Amino acid sequence: MERVLGIGGVFIKARDPKALAEWYREHLGVSVETGQTHGVMTSSRPGEMTVWSVFPADTAYFGPGPATFMVNYRVKNLDATLGQLRTAGANVEERVEDYDYGRFGWATDPEGNRFELWEPRS
């Protein structure tokens, strides 16, 4: 059985993404580069990282529902995990995106919360 390896990222909607990112940087130490609305926090395990991002309030990236956040889970084998979810009857998007830093897929839990799965490149 495929299992989540950890949290790959947390994504938050905001009316003013830059101001909210600045607030998190100032008050919680989330490193945010000038002009960007995301920060990267290093995990306690070598070579792993967790991404923290702020998106505009009207983003469609979190799916069609009213969710104000989305969690990204790191997985070892994206295809196997997506297949396992399909077998269980979960709503799984057919689309898989491939980048230099890994592969991504999306599914929705029984309560309608969209989540992202990330298989990092080795």
Features:
alpha+beta; 41% strand; 2 helices; eight-stranded mixed β-sheet; 2,3-Dihydroxybiphenyl 1,2-Dioxygenase, domain 1
Commentary on this structure:
There is one protein chain. This protein is α+β, with helices and mostly antiparallel strands and 122 residues long. It has a single domain, classed as 2,3-Dihydroxybiphenyl 1,2-Dioxygenase, domain 1 (Roll), CATH 3.10.180. Helix content is 18%, strand content 41%. It contains two helices and eight strands. It has helices at residues 17-28, 78-87, and strands at residues 4-14, 38-42, 49-56, 69-75, 91-92, 97-99, 102-108, 114-120. Strands 1, 2, 3, 4, 5, 6, 7 and 8 form an eight-stranded mixed sheet that branches. A hairpin with a 5-residue loop joins strand 7 and strand 8 (114-120). The longest helix has 12 residues, at 17-28. The two termini are 21 Å apart. This is VOC family protein. Residues 6-120 form the VOC domain.
